[in-house]
# Entry
Amino acid sequence: MYQALYRAFRPETFGDLAGQDHIVRILKNQIATDSVGHAYLFCGTRGTGKTTTARLLAKALNCTSEGERPCGECENCRAIAAGNFIDVVELDAASNNSVDDIRTLREEVNFPPAVGRKKVYIIDEVHMLSTQAFNAFLKTLEEPPKDTVFILCTTDPNKLPATIQSRCIRLDFRRVPENVIRDRFRTICKKLGIEADEDALALLAENADGSVRDGLSLLDLCAGAGGKLTRQDVQSLLGIAGTEVFIRITGQIAAKDTAGALTTFAEVLSEGKEPLQFAKDLMEHFRSLMIIKFTERPEEIINLSPENVERLRSQADALSMDLISRSIRAVSDALADARWSSRPRILIELALIEMCR
Ligand SMILES: [Zn+2]
# Structure
């Protein structure tokens, strides 16, 4: 059976976890000195490794290896990875958010671990709990049961009552840097026997936007294409418009050619590109122009091949900083408004018309 890459390559040990070194250091130290807390709050945007880290901690607490824990290989580690270790319970608060769910949990925690050293409760999206559920849960946190560890994960810590937050060790997960994601992709491609251009991996990493999970879903899409993976493959598979289109539309904006810019945009959409993705990429193009305008070696800052930098340089030299900054603001406003709009295309067309003025 086919397994999604983000499942197939889920980290088994702390060494495999990408881009959260500050958290790994703290947890490893607590595990080594036997000073693991009874409640943690893992905060961070989606795909940054909160649930993965929670499982790693659960494994470490129940791992039977004499060496570094988790080993990822002992019976307990493997059972936790497979999701069938009785003392590690994962709850999705989005679907188990009632006070009754928490009451059941409170009764359960009174029993000692059945086979492991510690019972671990991983509660995902914990901010979805109802107010009564939070109140019931608070009592558990106030009188923490022996040999039980709670790991609360959330993308939105501000929605949690302060009383809950203050009883947890809070760890903030960061967006994973592009170069870390790219390194991870290179390793995975090698293991899968997929040949991929560095440019292709860089573009994938750029579009992962700091989330390893999102990045792996993108890689999943591209990995099935067969043959050597190039930047162009990634562009067409993900619906990312090529650099030429951005050079053309920027030229039209600079020439105040409103009709031309709108036509180019319409062409891009007719090829099946997403309007929002196009707007994000257009903003990135203007950013590249800005960086190229002010730096000698822009490829150290922006993710473009040296050939593309050269192609952009003459355009960057010809544009005024005023036009670049106006355009970035116009696209950024359109993107912000488009989040709440069912018709993002119109907002982006409006932005293009403003940029051409
Ligand atoms: Zn182990």
Observations:
- The longest helix spans residues 275-294.
- The CA atoms of residues 142 and 167 lie 8 Å apart.
- The chain has a mean pLDDT of 90.
- Strands lie at 39-43, 88-92, 119-124, 148-154, 169-172.
